Automatic annotation (TrEMBL):
Keyword Transmembrane helix: yes
GO molecular function: phosphorelay sensor kinase activity
Keyword ATP-binding: no
Cross-referenced InterPro entries: Bact_2-comp_sensor_kinase (IPR050640), Sig_transdc_His_kin_internal (IPR010559)
Keywords of this entry: Membrane, Transmembrane, Transmembrane helix
Protein name: Signal transduction histidine kinase internal region domain-containing protein
């Protein structure tokens, strides 16, 4: 299997501190074992430390190379079982071979003459067992970290899919709002022209502002809260001409939240939803409240005045 050089970068594992701490910790038990077995000799201890650091560093990086290689062959959470078997199988083979070589070389280069020629397999079993234990611990850390990163990526992908779905639904709503809203607005304008030309002119100006914003909104994924509230002011004017005193507003304008970003027409969609599902009565007006909460959250709520006749709704339904 061809492994790209970029995939063999150990820095991609983000384990620098694990190596800097883990390698000396791995060597320490073998130094103590040497002292306990053969007594203290400065030359032998120095050789054990130096040789241990060098050989452990080489083995560690060999195992890291193996980790990257196996991950490329069995990536993702679905291949966890196969990846673990092959990863730890390779760990075991590399570690056993390494300890056999290390034990033999330590005897060959012993400056104190205290180490007898190692007998196979008795003198090899303890070093191999100690090394395998440490390799399993460290290998479990790498596998656990990899699975955690895979889980986080899966969560991020799921959130991205959910966000895209919401954006698609919002786009669908924005595409449907124009003809429906225009029909209602033209009816209101027609009634005003015959009653009060001045109010009709003001209504037409606000209607133009609303449609100007709608045309711009299709080109912008996000707008500031200030722009959205300015649009809502024009939209409210049109609604008040239609519903009069049966519709009331409580809007908190927080300067600290003026730069918050949200999808365009968000407030209109929420307002339309409130109008669709609630009754508007002269003696009991519908109250729509918009306020800024902590943690950069915006709350849109309304008094609950459900219609006596249940309204059938589908995604994208708008206020009549």
């Amino acid at each position: 299997m061809n492994v790209p050089l970029s995939a063999l970068s150990f820095n991609a594992l983000h384990d620098r501190w694990v190596r800097l701490i883990g390698i000396p910790v791995a060597v320490l038990p073998f130094v103590l074992l040497t002292i306990a077995a053969y007594g203290y000799d400065g030359r032998l201890v120095a050789l054990t430390i130096v040789w241990g650091l060098v050989s452990t560093t080489l083995l560690w990086h060999l195992l890291l190379w193996w980790v990257v290689r196996v991950r490329m062959e069995y990536p993702g959470r679905l291949n966890t079982g196969k990846r673990i078997w092959k990863t730890f199988g390779g760990y075991s083979l590399f570690t056993v071979f390494d300890q056999i070589v290390e034990t033999r070389l330590l005897y060959q280069f012993d400056p104190s003459g205290r180490i007898p020629e190692p007998a196979f397999p008795d003198d090899y079993l303890l070093p191999i067992a100690m090394a395998l234990f440490f390799v399993v611990v460290v290998g479990s850390y790498y596998e656990g970290s990899y699975n955690l990163s895979q889980y986080r990526q899966a969560v991020e992908r799921a959130e991205a899919v959910k966000k895209n779905q919401l954006l698609a639904e919002l786009t669908s709503l924005k595409n449907q709002v124009n003809p429906h809203f225009l029909f209602n607005s033209l009816n209101s304008l027609s009634a005003l022209i015959s009653e009060d030309r001045r109010r009709a002119s003001a209504f037409l100006d606000e209607l133009a502002s609303v449609y100007r914003y709608m045309l711009q909104a299709s080109q912008r994924p996000l707008v500031s809260l200030t722009d959205e509230l300015a649009f809502l002011d024009a939209y409210r004017y049109l609604l008040q001409e239609r519903y009069g005193s049966t519709l009331c507003w409580q809007i908190e304008r927080n300067l600290a939240a003026s730069d918050l970003l949200l999808p365009p027409l968000t407030l209109q969609v929420l307002v339309d939803n409130a109008l669709r599902h609630n009754s508007l009565l002269p003696g009991k007006p519908l109250i729509i409240t918009i306020r800024h909460l902590a943690s950069n959250r915006l709350e849109v709520s309304n008094s609950l005045q459900r219609k006596s006749v249940q309204v059938a709704t589908q995604a994208g339904d708008l206020v009549d």
